[in-house]
Amino acid sequence: MNIQQSRTYNHLSLLTARDLQMSLASAVRERRRLHGLSRRALALDSTVPPPTIKRFETTGEISLRQFLLLWQCVDRLDRLAALCNRPQAVPKSIDDVLADDRSTP
Q1: Which of 22, 49, 97, 105 lies 20 to 30 angstroms, CA to CA, from 13?
Q2: How far is CA 103 from CA 89, 91, 98, in A?
Q3: What digits encode the pLDDT tens for the residues 67-90?
Q4: Mind listing the pLDDT tens digit for each residue in 32-72?
Q5: Closest Cα partner for 46 from 19, 75, 10?
Q6: Cβ count within 10 A of residue 25
Q7: pTM assigned to the model
Q8: Structural domain boundaries in the chain
Q9: What is the DSSP string of 53-65?
Q10: Domain 12-103 belongs to what topology?
Q11: Which of 23, 24, 42 is nearest to 33 (CA)?
C-alpha cells in the first residue's frame, strides 16, 4: 500500500503504546498481589511461565494471548472485551445535541 492509499486517524493523544503496555503490566501485577498470588502461583493458574510473567511485569512485553491468559486469572475478560464495542457517535454540532435530546423520552 502506498502512502496515498493509507488511512489517517485523527486521534490526538499524549499516551504512547509503551505507556499503555506498562500500565497494563502494572494493572496485572497489582491485581495479582491483591489476590495474594505469587508469580509462580499465577503461572500455574494461567499456564504462562514465571519468567514470562516477570518480563511482562518489568518491561510490558508479552504476547496478546499470554496477556489474556493472565488477565482472566486476575480480572474479568468481559472488561477487556468492552474495549471492542463501537463508541457512541460524538455530536458534531449543537443541532446534533438538540436532536438527541428530543429523541430521548
Answers
A1: 97
A2: 15, 14, 9
A3: 999 999 999 999 999 999 987 777
A4: 999 999 999 999 999 999 999 999 999 999 999 999 999 99
A5: 75
A6: 21
A7: 0.73
A8: 12-103
A9: HHHHHHH----HH
A10: 434 Repressor (Amino-terminal Domain) (1.10.260)
A11: 42
